[in-house]
Amino acid sequence: MRIVLLLTLLITCLNNCWSQNLRSITKEDSIKIKTKIKDSLTSLKNTLERKYENSFLEKNQLIEFTLDTTKIELKTLWRLEIDYSTASMVDSAIYSNKKYDELLNKYYKILLNRLDEEDKKILRQSQRKWIEFRDDEIKLIVRLSKEKYSGGGSIQRVIVAGNISELTKKRVIDLYQYSLGVSEY
């Protein structure tokens, strides 16, 4: 369901991108986006609650995670619907990364709180190593975007920002999935 919704929004966004209706996001646009997100999330929550009404174990986690991630994706898509300039694409990826980083901390804490002391140490060590990996991966992404490797162009800024955001998003998904397999300690 979530994938279908996101694909539909992405297609809509891409269709609108070709119409060359480039402009800055106004305060009114921001209000409309917030209202659309709120309405969409309410509808999605109701749908998920009906779909998983007999599954109590992971229902609340699933709904919360889906709403958390959908909110980020919708805001990013609807902002790009209004302004799909290179600068806006980079800003949207930076926004997405910031919000996924907030979720990373949230789901890290959820998992951490479900572990005993010995396993908490392992999770902390894993997270520190993931941060080292992320930092090295960002260095690689930036290097590979240089003109001598990529051919250059302003699109490289979009690609770099998007790849960095995807790193964080993937870690959030991993932590969430790990937490599903662990009951509260």
Describe this structure in words.
Residues 85-175 form the Lysozyme inhibitor LprI-like N-terminal domain. Pfam families: LprI. This is DUF1311 domain-containing protein. This protein is mainly α and 185 residues long. The protein has two domains: 1-15 and 28-84, no CATH class; 93-185, no CATH class. It is built from seven helices and no strands. The protein has helices at 2-17, 27-51, 56-82, 86-113, 117-144, 147-150, 155-180. Helix 1 (2-17) packs parallel to helix 3 (56-82) and helix 2 runs antiparallel to helix 3 (56-82). The longest helix is centred in the middle third of the chain and has 28 residues, at 86-113. The protein is flat, with a radius of gyration of 19 Å.
List the topology elements.
Blueprint: H1 2-17, H2 27-51, H3 56-82, H4 86-113, H5 117-144, H6 147-150, H7 155-180
Helix pairs in contact: 1-3, 2-3, 3-4, 4-7, 5-7
Note the total helix count: 7
Structural class: mainly alpha
What is the general shape? Answer: flat
Global mean pLDDT: 85
Helix-residue proportion: over 70%
Number of strands: 0
Instruction: Sketch the major β-sheet.
Output: none
Q: Report the sheet-strand fraction.
A: under 5%
Radius of gyration: 19 Å
Outline the low-pLDDT stretches.
none
Write down the secondary-structure element order: HHHHHHH
- How many domain regions? 2
What distance separates the N and C termini?
31 Å
List keywords for this structure.
DUF1311 domain-containing protein, flat, 185 residues, mainly alpha, 2 domains, LprI-like_N
